[in-house]
Structures are given as C-alpha cells and as structure tokens.
Amino acid sequence: MKQSKSIGSIFRINPPRIEQIALPFQEFVKTESFSGILLISFMLVALIWANSPWSASYESLWQTKINVSVGSFKIDKPLLLWINDGLMAVFFFVVGLEIKRELLVGELSSLRQALFPIAAALGGMLVPAAFYLILNANGSGEGGWGIPMATDIAFALGILALLGKRAPLPLKIFLTAVAIVDDIGAVLVIALFYTDKIVWASLGAAAIIFILLMILSRMGVRKPLPYALLGIALWVAFLKSGVHATIAGVLLAMTIPASTAIDRKGFLDRARQYLDQFEKEGIKDGNSFTTKKQRALLQGIEDSAQGVEAPLQRLEHTLHPWVAFFIMPVFALANAGVDLRTDIIAALVNPITLGIILGLVVGKQIGITFMAWLVTRMGLSRKINGVTWKQIYGASMLAGIGFTMSLFISNLAFSDPVMLSNAKVGILVASFISAGLGWFVLSRNGTPAPQAKEDR
C-alpha cells in the first residue's frame, strides 16, 4: 500500500526531532475526564446561584470593573470580559499547542489517517450549522449559526470516563481528534465571521509582532520569556484591532518550537557522564547536602532534561492542568448562569434555542456518522481499529456537548441579553440531552471491535 504523505513533511519538520512530542495519551484523557466532571459541577453551581435569592450577586460579580493602565494606555473591562477575552486566550493557546502537536505526530499527522476524523469533524460542523439555519435563516437569530458547530472535549471525555472499560482508548483518541479539528474550525469561524469593525493599524501591529515571534522560532529561541512578552503584546494588539483577542493564543502557539535541542541518545550519554561524575564525588551516609560540584552536575542534568524536551511539549504539559482545572471551570461559572425563573417554555420554543438543540443533538449525529462512513465507503480512509460503528455513533452523540466553546461563541454572536439567554438555554439543554444519549448508547455497545492484524 502506498504510504500516505506526512503533514510534517509538508511543513518541512524533521520527524526524528519531534518523535516523542506527544504527551502520553492516557494522561491527557485522565486530565480531560476529571476536568469534564469539574465543569459539570461548576455549571450546576452557576445555575443554582443564578436562580437563587442571591442571583443579583451573581450578575454584579461578573460586571465588576477591572482597570489596567500604563501611562496613557488603558484597558477597562468587567470581570466577565477579562475571563472571556483574557483567560480564554490562554485556553486557546493550549488548544493551539494541541493542534500543532496533532498535526506533527498525532492522529492528524498522516493525510490518509487524518481523513477519517477530519471528515467526521467537518460533517459535525456543517450539518449542525445547516440545521440551525433551517429555523433561523433571515431571522434575528441568524448570526448564531456557529454555536452548534462546537464540541466540548473535556465534557465529552468526562462522560467516557464514567463508562470505564466500555469506552476503549481508540474511541477516546477518535473523539479527541474530531474535537481538535472542530477547534480548528471554531477558531476560523471566530476569526472570519465573529469579528467587530477592524482597526487596521492594530491588526498591522499584530502582524508585525507575529512575524517577530516566527523569527524567534526560526532562530531556535527556546526560553519562554520572549514568547510570553511578545504574546501579551500580540493579545493587546488583537484586543484593540476588533478581531477577537483569543485568536492571539492560537497564533502564539503556532510559533512555539517543536524541536529538541539534543536527541534522546545525546541526553542519555550526557546524563550518564554527569551521574558517573556525581558518584565519584562521593556519597556520605547521613549527609543530605551535596557538594558544589555535585550541584553543578545536577544543574547539568536539569539543563539536559530541558534540552531533550520540546518547548511545545513542556508548555502544554505545564499549562494543561491550569486550563483544565482553573480556566475552564471559572469560564463555566461565569457564563453558565441562566435565569430559569422566567418563562422557560417561551425560551424552549424560541427558534434560537430550538436551532441550537436541533444542531447539537441531531446535526452532530448525522454529520459525524455519515461523513465518517462516506470516506471509508469511498476508500479514502479507513475506520479506526478497535472501534465499532455503534461506538462511532455514540461518540457522535457526545460530540453534541457544545458547552464551553458554544457558550463562548454565543457571547460573540449575541449582544441582546434575551437572545443570549435563549442561546444558553439551548446549549445547556442540548448538552444534557447529548450526554444522556451518548452514555445510554455507549453503555450498551461497549465491546471493542476486533483489531486488524496489521494493528496488533
């Protein structure tokens, strides 16, 4: 069989240098799964708080003004926007790191291998948007078509975690790959369609900063500080440009080096030399202090350890827990609070609400399953080994959990509080329905498909 072309080769990436860039997938899934459970908890807290006698404090907290000024430069925003524009930029930075990793060494690194989740994800974006527009085309809610395109991978993997061994690892890999392609689509949609009036001077400044970041990357600069400083400047430039500031996070991630300073063999050789010299210095029983030379040797081992790890991998490993356990739960707490004490029936029959529910619950199932089947039927790709079509269908239901990204896009799509509230109701209802349906189907079809011989 003809070997598929590597995306890494298209970008002229040297494969051996980033061979081990990916985090252990089990660790990733474990983090995402617990994060999903945490998201559910914070979402429930937000709903209870927003519908309690203390609901006024919920609204007033997120509208608290926070002012940052340096000389004549000033950013004055409510706490809610600092979360949605600021903290979520870090979220999108980690998303960008994950996208780059997947393109280099993950499920998206081979064109033929990647086509299965790519096709599924495209179906899972286009069909939900079409279903939404069936109910909202030419109406006041037409601008919300991007809301049902999203998938919350943390929430979805949280449900898979509850299924235990009935959700095989290949299914989690498939759903993660679909969600990452979905993230790429969401970033493009936000950049192209949910952008205010563009301030070209600020956008030009952002372009110059991005070029500087690429120069740093090409020069092999590996220290995080220069990237952090220019990244903040890039965020400010986008904030002032009219293009949503979170795009800065994705662009910054694309410039983070994915190569190592030394290969693994070189690291092992250096580490052995340092350890041999460390031992020659002597080890005294009962003495917990090291000599000056031993401290220098330990520093050498530490420097070598950093050199054998790609900056992209190190940053993703460092920031991922902060995003999963702090930023996303805080975002959920700030955005999921919907007042359900008003006319909930009117909200549920609103075209915006119905369009989102129809898109996420029905559109995701049809789009993902049909497109995945189509590319295999046409011989363009093949179904991932170890997963049945029933499990693919169950995963397509879980992909209807839009939550974090859907809430984020709804804030960009609607400024009217009633329309925004209807959108949030639709997102919450659709996410709960999708979670329930996905869990029900997968819990009854949890036997993995037999693996093909070439994959054993």
Describe the structure.
The structure is a single chain. With 456 residues, the chain is mainly alpha-helical. It has two domains: 7-195 and 244-260 and 310-455, Na+/H+ antiporter like fold, CATH 1.20.1530.10; 264-308. The protein has helices spanning 7-10, 25-50, 55-62, 79-105, 111-136, 153-163, 169-193, 200-218, 224-241, 247-255, 264-280, 292-307, 311-335, 344-348, 351-377, 389-398, 403-413, 417-444, and strands at residues 65-70, 73-78. A two-stranded antiparallel sheet has the order 1-2.
Features:
456 residues, Na+/H+ antiporter like fold, disordered N terminus, 2 strands, mainly alpha, 18 helices
Structural class given helices, strands, pairing?
mainly alpha
Q: How many domains? A: 2
- What characteristic shape results from the CA principal axes? globular
Number of strands: 2
CATH superfamily of the largest domain: Na+/H+ antiporter like domain
CATH architecture assignment of the largest domain:
Up-down Bundle
CATH names the topology of the largest domain as Na+/H+ antiporter like fold
Question: Given this structure, which CATH class of the largest domain is correct?
Answer: Mainly Alpha
What is the CA-based Rg, rounded?
Answer: 24 Å
The largest sheet is: 2 strands, antiparallel
Assess the beta-strand content as a share of residues: under 5%
**What is the mean predicted local confidence, pLDDT?**
83
Give the termini separation.
18 Å
